[in-house]
Amino acid sequence: MRSRRKPHEESCFCGLKAAIRKSGTAENPDRLFRACPRYRKGSHCNYFKWVEDDEYEGMGQGATKKDYGAELQVDSDCDEWRLKVAWRLGSLEAEVKALKMLIVFLFVVVVLNVIVCSLLCRSK
Fold first, then answer.
1. 38 is in which domain, residue-wise?
2. What region holds the GRF-type domain (predicted)?
3. pTM
């Protein structure tokens, strides 16, 4: 079964959920826009799109742009947290793999030492 995304849930070119940010420029003060959630980390996909006023209609009566932005910021913070956890998990898996290889290497060295020592003891 397919699930449909809500209209305000767009993905950036990286495939991540686009984060809602607030413009700080003089031309567009406090205007909301969508950007790649990796934007401030340096390696991002340059996704950018202004959030239009008609996108706020789905929020219900009494909701404001500020409420909408806060809800989406929480979602993007959650995505950012998931990205950090996934990266950390990947690095831990790489560490475990390296440690396993080190254990195997040390085991082989110990076995070779035992064999060499036993051969030297027999030859005397």
1. 7-61
2. 12-54
3. 0.38
Which of residues 41, 61, 81 is at a domain's end?
61
User: Residue 1 domain-assigned?
Assistant: no
Instruction: Encode pLDDT of 79-96 as tens digits.
Output: 777 777 877 888 899 999
Q: Is 27 exposed, middle or buried (0-12, 13-18, 19+ CB in 10 A)?
A: exposed
Q: Which residue has the tokens 């959650």?
A: 78
- Of 5, 16, 6, 11, residue with least CA distance to 41: 16
- The torsion of the CA quartet 24, 28, 34, 40, rounded to 10 degrees, works out to -20
Q: Are 51 and 72 contained in the same domain?
A: no
Taking only the tens place, the pLDDT of each residue in 4-32 is: 444 446 788 888 888 888 888 888 888 88
Instruction: Mark whether 14 and 51 lie in a shared domain.
Output: yes
Joined together, the tokens standing for residue 64 give 């404001």
Let me know: does 55 contact 8? Beta carbons within 8 Å: yes
The answer to whether 22 touches 76, Cβ cutoff 8 Å, is no
